[in-house]
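Deliverable D2.4 — example input (structure tokens):
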């Protein structure tokens, strides 16, 4: 009888424990469900397949590309911090190395030395031409920056092209004395009798990046080109000269990696664009006058906010930008009592909207061209050629964009890029890159505490980054299927050197770019890995397209006229 009683009691105890365990499990499950954010979705892909090596400068990052094999997608903030290292938009040591490389290049191939070379040496000298029009500043400036970078890769001198004796934007931008004009090169070519004495005709070899079936950017060894001048056309962003990183010739890949680094982690690449700008451009005196007027005797701003709104003013974009500014302040400056923030935008109404909100916690710097009475203020009418671009460039006179550019590039700690559609466009990239270069010390000990942030409001991320389709925009290489749909507002660390390939973690191409790369002979898989064998086969099957024009075509006897 006692045994039966004990057995019944044991059964009751076990039943009671089971009820308690079930109740606790349900409670914990519900609490966990409440605490979790909605799951972000992506249509495909669970792993990467890349054997590309990392830069030897950061061996601790090896294999990080394979860490998230069980995750199908990432948010923009996760993409911006993919390496898990300290917050950074570029690598200080690599940038200082590139700065030294640029300085040494112009010391050897700059105009002041080359124009004084003996006849034979001058006539053997090579040049790279960078020629821009006066369309959008960001795209046109990249044409000159590409030429400068290519001159370093090819050990040639830089020519900055002029139109009717004027440099592009030369009312607002001053250019380096290390460059030549084409007119001067022609004069020196005649003076040294390069055609008559050394049988070297002054000609330009033209390669157009925007014509995939004709460009030799991937298949030819440009260092072996014999033409005195090389002109790489259609280079309107940071993509074109990074294509040399996949050139089939080892020599071209090597010189490209010296300038850009082949590191898979974009945060650990140099600020190449900023260092090139620092070396070759500066504001004119009139623009500098306007910048100082805007600063009103105060210090340089701590943060610059650039809002590319295309005459729209969505409230969510403002909210996202404000949150991003606060994040930048905490990350870069700690808790300043009254930081200075410069605001630039193509849309005046957005400035009027956001300025009072920023003034609640910071001092706002803004260039109001209508109040300015300097040398440029007499140009306050909008040119006829600009009227059709008002939505794109804004209603202000053209010169205001250059004052805004050089004002914002004085930011000491961070640049925040916000937009109604595409974030991190070429104009914002150049502001951030130049600002970072100007904050980097003159020696490798003086590390820069500078970051570039992209502010995305949730409407831009309904389909992930798929609408960031501009080839040269900062987030295009992340726009494929590894980008999560339905993301909330994001404030993401952004690389100062936008990637041209899809080698890094979380990078993947959109179908449009897969098709576009096919035209260059490049086959990409779904995560952007290049089929090297296919590229080599493509290059072997084609001939170099050689387009040249003669600059001094007429000769009489041994002298060219």
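Example output (designed residues):
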């Amino acid at each position: 009888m006692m045994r039966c009683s004990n057995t019944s009691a044991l059964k009751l105890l076990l039943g009671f424990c089971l009820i308690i365990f079930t109740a606790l499990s349900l409670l914990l499950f519900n609490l966990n469900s409440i605490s979790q954010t909605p799951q972000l979705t992506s249509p495909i892909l669970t792993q990467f397949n890349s054997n590309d090596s990392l830069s030897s400068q950061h061996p601790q990052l090896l294999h990080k590309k394979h860490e998230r094999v069980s995750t199908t997608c990432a948010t923009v903030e996760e993409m911006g911090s993919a390496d898990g290292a300290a917050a950074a938009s570029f690598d200080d040591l690599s940038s200082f190395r590139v700065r030294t490389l640029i300085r040494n290049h112009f010391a050897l191939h700059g105009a002041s030395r080359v124009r004084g070379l003996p006849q034979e040496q001058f006539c053997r000298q090579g040049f790279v031409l960078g020629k821009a029009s006066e369309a959008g500043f960001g795209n046109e400036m990249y044409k000159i920056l590409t030429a400068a970078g290519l001159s370093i890769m090819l050990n040639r001198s830089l020519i900055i092209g002029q139109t009717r004796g004027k440099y592009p934007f030369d009312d607002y931008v001053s250019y380096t004395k290390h460059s030549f004009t084409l007119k001067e090169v022609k004069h020196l070519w005649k003076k040294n009798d390069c055609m008559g004495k050394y049988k070297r005709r002054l000609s330009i070899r033209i390669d157009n990046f925007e014509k995939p079936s004709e460009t030799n950017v991937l298949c030819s060894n440009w260092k072996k080109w014999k033409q005195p001048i090389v002109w790489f056309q259609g280079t309107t962003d940071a993509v074109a000269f990074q294509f040399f990183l996949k050139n089939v010739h080892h020599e071209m890949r090597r010189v490209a990696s010296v300038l850009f680094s082949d590191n898979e982690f974009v945060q650990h690449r140099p600020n190449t664009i900023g260092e090139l700008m620092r070396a070759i451009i500066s504001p004119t005196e009139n623009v500098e006058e306007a910048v100082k007027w805007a600063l009103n005797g105060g210090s340089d701003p701590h943060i610059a906010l650039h809002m590319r709104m295309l005459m729209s003013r969505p409230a969510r974009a403002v909210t996202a930008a404000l949150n991003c500014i606060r994040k930048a302040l905490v990350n870069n400056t700690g808790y300043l009592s009254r930081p200075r923030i410069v605001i630039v935008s193509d849309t005046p109404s957005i400035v009027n909207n956001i300025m009072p909100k920023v003034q609640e916690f910071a001092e706002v710097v803004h260039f109001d061209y209508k109040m300015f009475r300097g040398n440029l203020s007499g140009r306050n009418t909008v040119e006829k050629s600009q009227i059709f671009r008002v939505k794109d460039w804004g209603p202000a006179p053209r010169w205001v964009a250059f004052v805004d550019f050089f004002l914002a590039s004085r930011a000491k700690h961070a640049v925040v890029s916000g937009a109604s559609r595409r974030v991190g466009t070429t104009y914002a990239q150049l502001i951030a890159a130049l600002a970072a270069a100007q904050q980097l010390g003159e020696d490798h000990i003086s590390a820069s505490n500078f970051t570039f942030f992209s502010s995305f409001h949730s409407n831009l991320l309904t389909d992930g980054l798929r609408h960031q389709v501009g080839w040269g925009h900062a987030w295009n290489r992340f726009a494929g299927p590894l980008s999560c749909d339905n993301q909330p507002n994001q404030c993401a660390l952004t690389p100062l050197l936008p990637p041209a390939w899809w080698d890094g973690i979380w990078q993947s191409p959109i179908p449009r770019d897969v098709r576009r790369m096919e035209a260059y002979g490049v086959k990409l898989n779904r995560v952007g890995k290049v089929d090297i064998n296919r590229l080599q086969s493509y290059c072997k099957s084609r001939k170099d397209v050689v387009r040249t024009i003669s600059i001094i075509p007429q000769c009489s006897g041994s002298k060219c006229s």
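The longest helix spans residues 2-35.
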